[in-house]
């Protein structure tokens, strides 16, 4: 089954906007592939305003959230892989959702924690076949 995180983020972002709230993403900026302005990262995290008035070209697909925004007047392309999104919530009330326990979350945990497999070491012996019934 596909992870639910992208679907939840799209739905919650729309719900927050429909309720005149300002949607924000809490992001783990230490994960591989995160492209955010480093000068605004605090304790390895960054909060991003994803309201339509703050950003342009928002794309929330199965892999990541991406958009264009200005930080301190400097334009930047932002890219946040789904595994790095910690929460989406309203600035005004805190209503929203934290991630890590939703259906499919284990997919992101595996992709972040996986080490590349080591190639098998030659045994030095003669190859053998084993009959499995």
UniProtKB/TrEMBL annotation:
A molecular function (GO) held by this record is: peptidase activity
Gene Ontology biological-process annotations: positive regulation of protein catabolic process; proteolysis
Chain intervals for the UniProt region annotation (Disordered): 108-133
Q: Name one GO cellular component term.
A: cytosol
Q: Name one Pfam family in it.
A: SspB
> Which InterPro entries did the record assign?
SspB, SspB-like_sf
- Keywords annotated in UniProt: Hydrolase, Protease
Family annotation (PANTHER family): STRINGENT STARVATION PROTEIN B (PTHR37486:SF1)
Q: What is this protein called?
A: ClpXP protease specificity-enhancing factor
Protein source organism: Neptunomonas concharum
């Amino acid at each position: 089954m596909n992870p639910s995180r992208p679907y939840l983020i799209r739905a919650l972002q729309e719900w927050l906007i429909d309720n005149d709230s300002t949607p924000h993403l809490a992001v783990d900026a230490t994960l591989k592939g995160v492209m955010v302005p480093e000068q605004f990262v605090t304790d390895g995290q960054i909060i991003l305003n994803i309201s339509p008035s703050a950003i342009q070209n928002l794309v929330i697909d199965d892999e990541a959230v991406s958009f264009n925004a200005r930080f301190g007047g400097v334009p930047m392309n932002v890219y946040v892989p789904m595994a790095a999104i910690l929460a989406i919530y309203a600035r005004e009330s805190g209503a929203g959702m934290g991630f890590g326990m939703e259906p499919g979350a284990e997919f992101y945990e595996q992709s972040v924690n996986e080490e590349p497999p080591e190639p098998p070491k030659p045994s030095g012996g003669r190859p053998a076949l084993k009959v499995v019934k």
